[in-house]
Each structure stands twice: as structure tokens, then as C-alpha cells.
Amino acid sequence: MDWEIEQTLVCPVTGTGFAIASAVKNMKLILWYKGNYFLRPGNILSHSPFGVIVNGRRTSIAIIHTFHYSSALWQTFKNRISCPGNDDPGIIVCPRYKACIFTLCPYGAKSD
């Protein structure tokens, strides 16, 4: 089954990501994952015996947990995860870069 990524968040404290994934008949999940690839809206995610496939390519993403989607749960994640890129994906300079666990910013931002 293919899942389309609708929205994403990254957590600079844990080095993990969250994504809303939808499938046929509007079935939705919230994925909590870790890896060196960060999901973006519009990505197509599928699973194979070889691992997680994103846009037809195998990636090194590990799904930590899945949650049934609820807007209240997603809003809780959005409110509690503090990353400037989550609100502004086009961010160029990040004021919190030095406090971030990511070696490379998932949004491509640089330190100020």
C-alpha cells in the first residue's frame, strides 16, 4: 500500500521526524521515524521486504511508532516541538542551530 505524506515536523531535541501519511479512502496515520532522510509533503511512502521505500527508492528510515491520525494529536505535536523550520520550511538562517541535535538541518538552514 502506498502512503502520501501530507505534513511533516522534525524534532531538534530527539533527532526524529513526524509525518501525516494518507492512503486510499482517506485512511491516515501519524508516523514517528528516524533516519538520514526526511519526509516531505508529496513524498510517496511504501514498504517492501527490503525496507522503507520513498518515491521508488529504498531509504534508511526506521519507523519508531505509528499513531492513528487525529487532528488533536497532530496539533499537540506541533505545539510541543520547537523547530523554526516546521513553521517556515524555507528558513535560511536558524537562530536555534547550535541547540539542534541534527548535524545537517533537515530544512537546509545554516547557523546565524
Question: Can you describe this structure in just a few lines?
Answer:
With 112 residues, the protein is mainly β. It has helices at 71-80, 84-87; strands at residues 3-11, 16-22, 28-35, 44-48, 51-54, 57-58, 61-68, 93-94, 110-111.
Structure description:
This protein has 112 residues and is mainly beta. It has a single domain (3-83), classed as Beta Barrel (OB fold (Dihydrolipoamide Acetyltransferase, E2P)). 12% of the residues lie in helices and 42% in strands. It has helices at 71-80, 84-87, and strands spanning 3-11, 16-22, 28-35, 44-48, 51-54, 57-58, 61-68, 93-94, 110-111. The strands form two sheets. The protein has a seven-stranded antiparallel β-sheet. The protein is globular, with a radius of gyration of 14 Å. It starts with a strand and ends with a strand.
Q: Topology, pairings included?
A:
Layout: E1 3-11, E2 16-22, E3 28-35, E4 44-48, E5 51-54, E6 57-58, E7 61-68, H1 71-80, H2 84-87, E8 93-94, E9 110-111
Parallel strand pairs: 8-9
Antiparallel strand pairs: 1-2, 1-4, 2-3, 3-7, 4-5, 5-6
